[in-house]
Amino acid sequence: MAAGVAAWLPFARAAAIGWMPVANCPMPIAPRDHSKRKDELIILNVSGRRFQTWRTTLDRYPDTLLGSSEKEFFYNEEAKEYFFDRDPDAFRSVLNFYRTGKLHYPRYECISAYDEELAFFGIIPEIIGDCCYEEYKDRKRENAERLMDDQEENKDCKMPNMTFRETMWRAFENPHTSTMALVFYYVTGFFIAISVITNVVETVPCGYKSQKDVPCGERYTVAFFCMDTACVMIFTVEYLLRLFAAPSRYRFMRSVMSIIDVVAILPYYIGLVMTDNEDVSGAFVTLRVFRVFRIFKFSRHSQGLRILGYTLKSCASELGFLLFSLTMAIIIFATVMFYAEKGSSSSKFTSIPASFWYTIVTMTTLGYGDMVPKTIAGKIFGSICSLSGVLVIALPVPVIVSNFSRIYHQNQRADKRRAQKVQKARLARIRIAKKGSSTAYLQTKRNGLLNELLDLTASEVEQQHLNKTSSLLESQHHHLLHCLEKTTGHEFVDEQLFEQNCLEGALQPYRSHSRTPSGSSQDGLTGTCCSRRSKRGSTPTPVPNASLPALHTQPHMLTHTLPKSPGLQELSAINIQCAEQQLHSSSRSNLNMQTNEVDRRNTRQQLQQVTTAIISVQTPSTGSSTEEDDDSHGLPNPGASVVTTASSNIVRVSAL
Amino acid sequence: MSQCRKRCKRQLTKVARYFYRFVTGTLTQDSIEDDFELSTVCHRPEGLDKLQEQTKFTKKELQVLYRGFKNECPSGVVNEETFKHIYSQFFPQGDSSTYAHFLFEAFDTNKNGSVSFEDFVAGLSIILRGSINDRLNWAFNLYDLNKDGCITKEEMMDIMRSIYDMMGKYTYPCMQDDAPREHVENFFQKMDRNQDGVVTIEEFIESCQKDENIMQSMQLFDNVI
After folding, report:
1. Nearest residue in A to B85, CA atom
2. Count of Cβ atoms closer than 10 Å to residue A201 Cβ
3. How far is A640 from chain B (nearest CA, A)?
4. Complex ipTM above 0.90?
5. Does A472 contact chain B (CB < 8 Å)?
6. How far apart are CA B59 and CA B52, in angstroms?
7. Closest to A7 (Cβ–Cβ): which among B72, B211, B220?
8. pLDDT exceeds cutoff 80 at A260
């Protein structure tokens, strides 16, 4: 129950008077407030700062520390106050939660300290109000990422018994772990640089050979070839080592870095394999272009490069938009320029695709000047083109920039989609908590039933113990729901059971009418109400000693003999309180009961079994003790009538 | 020709006005702020002593009641929406809005659309501290939707349906559609002595006094406060 409105529970209960005249069954007895304490001021001393509040304020949330009896552990007898050795600033928001029903997250507070306080006082953070929830979640996520980073750094501590393979992988991933790894890291970096520089220098012209500028690559072929070979050797060895050390080779091979590695070294091997064939050497030369990809291997060495790559990946939508809008604008303006310049002679705008180049150069404000419009119309449209170019390009760029800066500072923060999932998860949690109130009632009914059964058999001590389990507020709320059930003659069940019942209700052809008119001493209405319930579980013919229950009820019973099926248990409870006169002496000899509890409950409704000897032997005195309270409002003692008729039945020992 | 020119002029003025508005950027009127002024109505109840005279609660009980009331409704009055919302918290499985509406009507004795603390306490005083007859009268007042002194079958149907709505869908046994009707028939059978199709206050009180269950259940919530 949303305990924020706990103050209104007395009102809701009073308003239940509206159901009384229309109810057919007598109402269950209300739980008494035994400890009729007057509402008093409680002093909470938190590290010296004294807070005062009413006891009922704290009682609003009985599942927290302050609302439950757990606070008695902190009671200081001499000073007659509750002392908590916690942060008084954080306690302020905790106490405000009790007062207003809304939990706020103070922005100046450290997130983990706040979490600890909430955990100490037994408050779940999900109920933080909407005003503060986003902030709370953001801070929490930041903190989690920071902790994750710290953890990753702390992984440097060498775990014992790491295999050689694992050591090698760790060395590759974190060069700081050992000197060997560091050396390897620097060596590969050096060779990447050498390789890239070699590629560049290869094409520089140095010296003449037969009056033609010759690039160094052709002049010092052998030297460059040796360099290339050395680099490729190193890269190959590195790649093979990584492949060997990778925990999941398949995943490693699919990763971007390994693809770059492969692309970087492949041209060399292809070149080796291919002969000096004139036809393919042209293609081979183009392959050499791929050698420049070696520069991407630097991204293993540079964090910034990785972040840039990640940014571009995460801004894919903005980049896509930029590209799309540019394309649209280019096509439009190229077309316009082409038709505008069609008239002029010796125009460079020979076709629309030819005008693309002009449009791109103009929109990006480069303006090479190799293509210029000559007609007036062309010039007008050209100026419009350059103005709009500025706009179109300027719009998405700040987004990309801000993205980069954000990622750079936060280092891979979660994206919007994960936030949505969190929101969904949060809503689901709140829904579950809300559902908890309705399931709590069903749960209590089951527990209550157990209590009643044990009342008959257990000793005083156990009984006391069981009675104290639920709080007063809960029991009052459940009593209210129970009254509603009585008024309408239906009961609350949970979804699954409801579906089950509907299903089986469709299957069951017969309806058992076991109402024995003579049995009911109440007026007809009560009988109707209660007999509706008796229809559920009984066999049509009250045959004592029958060893075979009627066929159609067997499936009926079986479906209800699931452990924790509330239906039958409710029935028993009601039978105790509602003057259930019709006694079904049908047999229940061997139904396959799964648990003892269920067994007892099922049979209780037949009033013959259930640790049965006690029931049948004892007379009304037992019956009266089944009443929960002494002041039973004078309801006709159902226990008595129940027992007397039970004694007339044959006691059947249940399969306990 | 002159008509054409007139039309052209009209269009031009429209276009000109549009451009003027476009350039200067007129905004819509700030009408939202006006609404805020009236919503914060604060109601202060009468003094504690006066309430103590009018109702049968002790001072302490009134204090507890008021604190709870004020906490949920800082403005001092409950309107129907809040009332429905509060009541629905107690019945998570069903739809309690109709019954809450009837309750609201019963508490709102001066029919001004809001329940103040005095109304609230007056109602509670009857229910919790009044004599049996007073309580029965109050219940009758609740059922009598149009306050004409007699309960017709339609009114009872409405009430019954609203109560059954609070149970929600997942009940055992499955809620039949005619369950409220059956219940109403039973009720009329019991209450309507002269079988004239309506239940008057005398019939109601008489029949209830004869029924022991009802008598007992009327006193069930005495110690709620």
Report:
1. A5
2. 15
3. 17
4. no
5. no
6. 6
7. B72
8. yes
Of A56, A477, A488, the CB nearest to B90: A477
The closest of A60, A130, A122 to A94, measured between CA atoms, is A122
Q: How sure is the predictor about B26, in pLDDT bands with cuts at 50, 70 and 90?
A: low
Residues 6+ apart with CB under 8 A from B221: A13, A14, A16, A17, A30, B127, B128
Average pLDDT value for chain A: 71
List the 74-133 stretch of B: residues with Cβ below 8 A of A: 86-87, 89-93, 99, 102-103, 106, 120, 124, 127-128
The 10 Å Cβ neighbour count of residue B168 is 19
Contact call for B173 and A490, based on CB within 8 A: yes
Q: Is the pLDDT of residue A604 over 70?
A: no
Distance to chain A for B4, nearest Cα, Å: 32
Q: Mutation test of the interface with chain B: which of A22, A478, A572, choosing the one with the most B Cβ atoms within 10 A?
A: A22
Residue A370 pLDDT > 80, yes or no? yes
Q: How far is CA B26 from CA B18, B44, B104, in A?
A: 11, 43, 46
* Mean pLDDT to the nearest integer, B51-79: 81
- Asked whether residue A360 carries a pLDDT value surpassing 90, the answer given is yes
Residue closest to A43 by CA, chosen among A71, A12, A62: A71
Nearby residues of A382 by Cβ (< 8 Å), 6 or more positions away: A337, A362, A373
DSSP track, A468-493: TSS-HHHHHHHHHHHHHHHHHT-EE-
Mean pLDDT of all residues in A273-281: 66
**Cross-strand bridge partners of residue B79:** B114
Interface of A with B in 86-145 (CB under 8 A): 99-100
Q: Is A514 helix (H, G, I), strand (E, B) or coil?
A: coil
Residue B219 near residue A26 (C-beta atoms within 8 A): no
d(CA A219, CA A207): 8
Partner residues linked to A655 by β-bridges: none
pLDDT tens sequence across A420-451: 566 678 778 877 877 776 677 777 676 666 65
CB-nearest to B93 from A56, A480, A492 is A492
Q: Given a cut of 50, is residue A336 above it in pLDDT?
A: yes
pLDDT surpasses 80 at A328: yes
- Which residues of chain B are within 8 Å of residue A491 when distances are taken between CB atoms? 171-172
Nearest CA among A533, A541, A500, A548 for reference residue A605: A533
Query: In the beta sheet, which residues pair with residue B200?
Result: B150
Nearest-CA distance B114 → chain A (Å): 16
**By three-state DSSP, how is residue A345 classified?**
coil
pLDDT tens digits for range B171-211 = 888 888 888 888 888 888 888 888 888 888 888 888 888 88
Q: How many C-alpha atoms does B128 have within 13 Å on its Cβ side? A: 24
b/e per residue B98-116 (b: at least 16 CB within 10 A): bbbbbbbbbbbeeeeebbb
Burial of B94 (0-12, 13-18, 19+ CB in 10 A): buried
Q: Is there a contact between B103 and A438 if contact means CB atoms under 8 Å apart?
A: no
Amino acid at A218: E
What's the confidence (pLDDT) of residue A51?
A: 93
Q: Is B57 helix (H, G, I), strand (E, B) or coil?
A: coil
Closest among B54, B141, B131 to B103, alpha carbons compared: B141
Q: What is the pLDDT of residue A62?
A: 82
Distance from CA of A502 to the nearest CA of B (A): 7
CB-CB contact of A105 with A114 (8 Å) = yes
Report the amino acid identity of residue B14.
K
Q: Are A505 and A556 in contact (CB under 8 A)?
A: no
Which three-class secondary structure string do you get for A167-181?
A: HHHHHHHCHHHCHHH
